[in-house]
Amino acid sequence: MRRPLPWITAFALLLGAFLIPHSAYAAQTLDSLAKAKGRYFGSATDNPELSDTAYTSILGSEFSSITPGNSMKWDTTEPTQGGFNFSNGDAVVAFAKAHGQMVRAHTLVWHNQLPSWVANGSWTADTLNAALKNHITTEVGHYAGQVYSWDVVNEPFNDDGTYRTDVWYNTLGTSYIANALTWAHAADPNAKLYINDYNIDGSGAKADAMYTLAKSLKAAGVPLDGIGFQGHLATQYGFPSGMQANLQRFADLGLDVAITELDVRMVLPSDATKVATQNTYYTNVVNACLAVSRCVGITVWDYTDKYSWVPGTFSGEGDATLYDANLVPKADYDAVVAALGGTTSSPSPTTSPTGSTSCKVAYTANDWGSGFTATITITDNGPPLTAWTLGYGYAGNQTLTTGWSGNWSQSGKNITVTNASWNGVIPTGGSVSIGANFSYSGTNTAPGAFTLNGSPCS
Ligand code: G3I
Q: How many angstroms does the Cα of residue 212 sit away from the middle of ligand 1?
């Protein structure tokens, strides 16, 4: 009997073989938009989060792929030598199967999250090689046919491009990298095998070191399929220079490239400038990936601020992900949707007007937690008006209940107000005040951009 195609292989073939038209999908999601571009859009996740049903409903519907943040790392899977435990990783794989998702498996050889028997063992090259081979053969064998790819080697370089002096390098030199890839390939010949690192997204010494390594591994016929660019960005450090060209030079070696751990953190508190920068960075990353045909997909390092690793590692920083801590999509989500060619119901954050002098809008909200009264004062600094239409958008789920001093309507996240019969005339320098009540849940962020008769206001 012919063996059925493993589900993951079928998915990968579907992804790689042709572009799926967006109209084929009932609803626009990051998954459907990315697939329409021949890519996947994934998220990291972790076992404790899988019991949060509000979280898993988005994880299961918006994303094409998931990556276990911790549960396939060595300290979890082989805490004692030869004592393997795959229960947490199995739970992540089961979630992916139940939701038709790929798994980017992470990670086999890393300096971090090693059990002490590995990190502090008394090794010779032979005994460490044997332990490494057994770990890789057992873990990759366990998941063979169930995962799309493996981050086989994680973070082998220091930021200056020298090799990280961890137990692997100190005991084995650089040989562990080719060996790990070779052993992983033997255990699952269909899995795409990656080396993954941070601060290699743009040009620089560390990216050059990875390029030299990748080139030499390919030349030696080592089974390396791709390079993972983690993409842990921060608004205060600028966008990586030459990201698209950097991805392209690795692709030109005959490798897949992928953004594997994207997030864009900021120093808190957030403000409009930082959010605009963050939106631009998310847009730039998507654009860079779409511009490189061998960039196969993007994974965010969890999709919500509720479960982001950032605040626990970088004190005073956060707000790094696509959804806020209440699981409400942020402007970053809209930025990604727009870059993937989708439609956004709120004004595109990347095209937000910088303001003009022809009109000015003052907005205040009297908020009682589940609702608020918005008071808006429009000042006409241009020619006199005889009729006006005000437009703006909310980022969250704010819902209009009643408005006054104008004709209020809502379409998705967009609010439109036309003048009442008695306040259409605004002389130059004159003002009109209007108001409305809204209900909401989650975060009530003030709108950032207004238009009057189609022109942006300051
Ligand atoms: O499981 C223990 C728990 O028993 C204990 O009570 C608790 C106390 O701190 O710690 C828990 O372990 C934490 C583990 O996550 C699971 O939640 C560790 O302290 C914590 O350090 C660990 O952080 C992980 C980090 O890697 C470790 O380096 C993050 O969740 C994970 O998202 C992060 O992922 C890495 C990628 O693997 C590689 N690239 C960078 C990325 C971000 O650091």
A: 30
- For the chain, what are the domain ranges? 6-321, 359-457
Confidence bin at 345 (pLDDT 50/70/90) = low
Q: Please give the CATH topology (third level) of the domain spanning 359-457.
A: Immunoglobulin-like (2.60.40)
- Nearest-CA neighbor of 236 among 198, 205, 202, 278? 278
> Does residue 107 have a cis bond before it (omega within 30 degrees)?
yes
Same fold, 6-321 and 359-457: no
Bond preceding residue 189 cis, omega within 30 of 0: no
For residue 23, give every residue at least 6 positions away whose Cβ sits within 8 Å of its Cβ, in sequence order, or none: none
Q: Is 449 left (phi over 0), alpha (psi -120 to 50) or beta?
A: beta
Q: Is the CB of 67 under 6 A from ligand 1?
A: no
Q: Which residues lie closer than 8 Å to 337 by C-beta, 6 or more apart?
A: 28, 30, 33, 343, 344
pTM of the model as a whole: 0.75
Distance separating alpha carbons of residues 376 and 360, to the nearest angstrom: 10
436 three-class SS: strand
pLDDT of residue 9: 46
DSSP H or E stretch at residue 88: helix 87-98
Torsion over CA: 274, 246, 216, 298 (sign): positive
| pLDDT tens digit sequence for 86-145 | 999 999 999 999 999 999 999 999 999 999 999 999 999 999 999 999 999 999 999 999
CATH topology of domain 6-321: TIM Barrel (3.20.20)
Sign of CA dihedral 422, 423, 429, 434: positive
Q: Best mutation site among 47, 49, 70, 260 for ligand 1, i.e. most ligand atoms within 8 A of its Cβ?
A: 70
